[in-house]
Structure formats: structure tokens, C-alpha cells
Amino acid sequence: MQTEINCNNYKSERKGLMKAYDYLLSFNIKPSVQRIAIMDYLMTHRTHPTIDEIYLALCDAIPTLSKTTVYNTLKLFVEHGAAQMLTIAEKNVCYDGDISLHAHFLCKECNKIYDFPAPVEDVQVRNMREKGFHVDETHYYYRGVCPACQQLGDKQLN
């Protein structure tokens, strides 16, 4: 019996891991197996995962991984600017591998977080800078009900 290896899948997976490896180096973060896996997860799963979600997704593949390691790794990523910590959900802290300036919308029904382009120019930030303030971070958080949940709600009323 011969085992068949899907070379295209292996090449794609390896390319993703190398991308995460290089990305970590660009933020002066020493790559380790756990750090690469966590960053690769953030880069490939744009779901704004929690620590628990990341841990559950990776623990089978990396048996030595602990929730503490995931927490400490994400804290390191945030401190180095390689990831964002989102506090839009009151019950859970989520993480985002996309560090570009963008807004987040939390659906209060399904708890899904959506990405949206941020305003190109923030008038408030400009006014603050003119008054001598130095703004390091800007967060755009919106809460409401997404179109899919609105549609579900409309169907349940009829």
C-alpha cells in the first residue's frame, strides 16, 4: 500500500508558514513553532479569534501548546505591533492579524465581527494634533445587527 502525498497542499502550507515566519521577523519577533503557528492562524483565519478559539484550533497539531502560551504569544504580537487586540466584544478579547487601519463592526445577535474600511481622514485626530496631542492609536468600533441577522429577525416576525 502506497501513501499518496498532495504536494500542492504541502507547498501551499509551507508557503503560508514561511510568510508567517518572515512577518514575525519583520517585527523583531523571534520565530518559534508556536509563534509561527499562531501568526499563521491569524493571517489565514480572518475571524477575529479569541485565545480559546486559537488554542482549540492548534492544540491537536501542537500537543505542547497551552492556553498560557497562546495568551503570552498574542500579548507579544500586540506589544510589537504585529497584531491588534480588539476589545469590541465585552465578554471576550479578540485578536486581528490585520494591522492596517480599518474599522470593526460587532453584530449583537450573532457576535460576528466584520472589517470595514476606516475613514481616510479623521477630523478629530487632525484637530487633536493641531492642539499638540500625539495620537498613537485610533480604534473604530461599531455595534449593531448585521444584514443576515436582520433578515432572520424579519422572517421570524412574519
Give an overview of the whole structure:
This protein is α+β, with helices and mostly antiparallel strands and 158 residues long. The chain is built from 6 helices and 5 strands, in the order H-H-H-H-E-E-E-E-H-E-H. The strands form 2 sheets. It has a 3-stranded mixed β-sheet, with no helix packed on it. A two-stranded antiparallel ribbon has the order 1-2. Strand 1 and strand 2 form a beta hairpin. Helix 1 packs across helix 2. The longest helix has 20 residues. The N and C termini lie far apart (58 Å). 19% of the residues are buried.
SSE topology string? HHHHEEEEHEH
Task: Output the number of helix runs.
Answer: 6
Average per-residue pLDDT, rounded, comes to: 87
CA-based shape: flat
Q: Describe the strand arrangement of the main beta sheet, using strand numbers.
A: 4-3-5
Separation, N- and C-terminal Cα atoms: 58 Å
Strand residues, percent: 5-15%
The portion of residues assigned to helices is 40-55%
Subunit organisation of the chains = single chain
Report the major sheet.
Answer: 3 strands, mixed
- Low-pLDDT regions: 1-11
Overall SS class:
alpha+beta
Question: What is the strand tally?
Answer: 5
Any idea what the radius of gyration is?
19 Å
Fill in the keyword field for this structure.
three-stranded mixed β-sheet; about 15% strand; about 160 residues; alpha+beta
SSE layout and pairings?
Elements: H1 7-26, H2 33-44, H3 51-58, H4 67-80, E1 84-86, E2 94-96, E3 102-107, E4 113-117, H5 123-130, E5 141-144, H6 147-157
Parallel strand pairs: 3-5
Antiparallel strand pairs: 1-2, 3-4
